[in-house]
Amino acid sequence: MTNKLPLNDSVFFAWTRVSRRSEQLAKYFNLTYVRYNRWGQSDISLTCSLIFNFVKTLFWVVFHRPKFIFTFQAHPFISISAKLGTWFTGKGVVIPDLHTAAYTNHFTGIQGALGKWIMGKCPLILVHNDESKTFLGNAIDELKDKLFVLEDALPEFPSFNSELDSNELKCVLISRFAPDEPIQEFLDAVSKIDNCLFYITGNHQKATFDISKYPEDRIFFTGFLSDNDYLKLLQSSDTILILTTREMTLLSGGYEALSLEKPIVLSDTETLRNYFGNTAIYTQNNANDIRQAVIKMMPEIHNRRKAILDLKKQKIDEWQGKASHLIQLINQL
Hints:
alpha/beta
């Protein structure tokens, strides 16, 4: 997907360590991309980074006076700081791009009230899938006409020399060791599968269970990988798994697997089924079902590659059409 869809004098803010979606949207809409990091893991350090990022975003908007301001909104404070900046300058339209956490983790209490308030102040709101649009439209009636569904743009990756270094099948579980990922169930599922090597990405030091009991000659925890090493691992795999217990989520790992044309095993959620259709093998998030899904995938890898390629072409065309429509709507604001 190489065509850029220009929005002049515009910016995309993200307060996160990494957001491939934000990077891709900024790239394809030709936006200035401003990413502010988070510090540490403690409540105090995270609060300090939140305040610091709030002030930096506010001042950036005041000094640069952009016309359109996109925000990667998991919590409402990023959009509030951008909106305050537009009030100071009298210029600018804030367009939140809602992370699933915006209407799951941060949808109650003070943050929920602030989130609903700032969304009501914005003329257009991006969501990642139809299920999220339905949920938010039912939850907040005034948002129904503001919600626009735009899935992630499929990323473009450089090609590496990634020939398989083993005669055995190679399976990668894309993970962050986040609470919504059934990683322990996955490990219990595959620990007795002998004819495949399994790689688990992400910071395994965050695991809340003992990972030392799993066979080290067949299961490999990669830890944090550089972008190049991560892509080399994915490109050298035969199949990729992405698992979540959370609905209304289109996983970035799924987009990566689709872009790389890799057969995939996914958690059986309505959102994932609606996007990936019959190209994927779906599983419940328990060890037995995950094991059966992996075993089912093994003899079907070759045949599923063609279906994945066809889906990739379809999704690229669909995304270009939606993105062009979004540009038209934005220019009418």
